[in-house]
Amino acid sequence: MFDSTSIAVTIFVIAYALIISEKVHRTIVGIFGAMLMIMLGILSQETAVHHIDFNTLGLLMGMMIIVNITAETGLFNYLAIWAAQKVKAKPMKLLLALAALTAVCSALLDNVTTVLLTVPVTFSITSQLKVDVKPFLMAQIMASNIGGTATLIGDPPNIMIGSAVGLSFVDFILNLAPIIVVIFAVTVFILEALYGKELHTTPELQEQVMKLKPERQISDTVLLKKCLFVLGITMCLFVMHGALGLESATAAMFGAGLLLLLTFTRDEEKIAKVLSKIEWTAIFFFAGLFILVGALVETGVIKMLAAEAMKITEGSVNATAILIIWMSAIASAFVDNIPFVATMIPLIKDMGAMGITNLDPLWWSLALGACLGGNGTLIGASANVVVASLAAKHGERISFIGFTKVAFPCMIVSIVISTVYIYLRYLM
Question: What is the pLDDT of residue 335?
Answer without folding.
Answer: 67
